[in-house]
Amino acid sequence: MGYKHKYVVGNTYAFYNNSDDLETNANFASWSLELVHADDFVQVISGVATLTKDIISGSSYRWYADDFTFPTVDNGCYRFIVIDTSASNAVLYISNTFEVTDSTEGLKYVLYRNGKDILNYNYETLTSFKNKFHVELLSRKALVPISSDGYDISTGSYFRVRTIVTKNYEFVTGWFDEDEHDAMQGMIIHNDLSLEVDNSINAVDLAGDAEYAIEWQENYEYIQASVRLQITDRSSSNKAL
Question: I want to staple 174 with a disulfide (CB 3.0 to 4.6 A). Which of 9, 57, 112, 136 is the partner?
């Protein structure tokens, strides 16, 4: 059920359970998403979000929670669990531990989906669904590459037809474990990715030959990584092509 994102009270989130195995439990209508303390599993909030069935084949399905507001709780560590209320509250799913906070400091709001089905996400059927999370990322000052297209004319001068100005940002992750880095790499390959930059949501993509740069150190379970993302091109043309 996703990696260790941070949730901020009062913000809107959405996630898809993209596990390898399809679900066949016939009691889906009785499922409930619960918020519990991470250590002792004591229930904090019942029915945190509405769960929706995404039928993949016949009676087999995956499921997701779309656009739910995170409830007001104390800062701390929690988990989601899914229970079957028709079967003595049997626990069906348990999430990883995540942190809840009342501040967005050090966090970036991310929205993403893909034009084609990837990584067990059924995007081609759920045409409006977007994953929505806060991720621990630090952005460094932007680079502004400028490139131009044009041609030489008979006088020997150069006629510039189009100038493209882009903004590239290097982002540094928090101290993530291997599963968290795997999830980050899965996120940035989506072709519809928007990220909070300079206090506004911008469409971004991998910058040129950018890579997800991570250098594991022996005996270190957690490490930071960096990646360069570019805001959608802004173009100015001297002449229509």
Answer: 136
Instruction: Answer whether 105's CB lies under 8 Å from 45's CB.
Output: no
| pLDDT single digits (tens) 146-186 | 555 555 566 666 555 566 667 788 889 999 999 899 999 99
Sorted by sequence, the CB contacts under 8 Å of residue 105 that are 6+ apart come out as none
- The pTM of the full predicted model, rounded to 2 decimals, is 0.82
| Predicted confidence (pLDDT) per residue in 99-152, tens digit | 999 999 999 999 999 999 999 999 999 999 999 999 999 887 666 555 555 555
Contact in structure between 79 and 41 (CB atoms under 8 Å): yes
Structure token pair of residue 230: 């570019």
Domain spanning 6-102 has what CATH number? 2.60.40
| C-alpha to C-alpha distances, 29 to 25, 26, 82, 139, 220, nearest whole angstrom | 10, 8, 12, 42, 43
Domain ranges of the chain: 6-102, 138-237
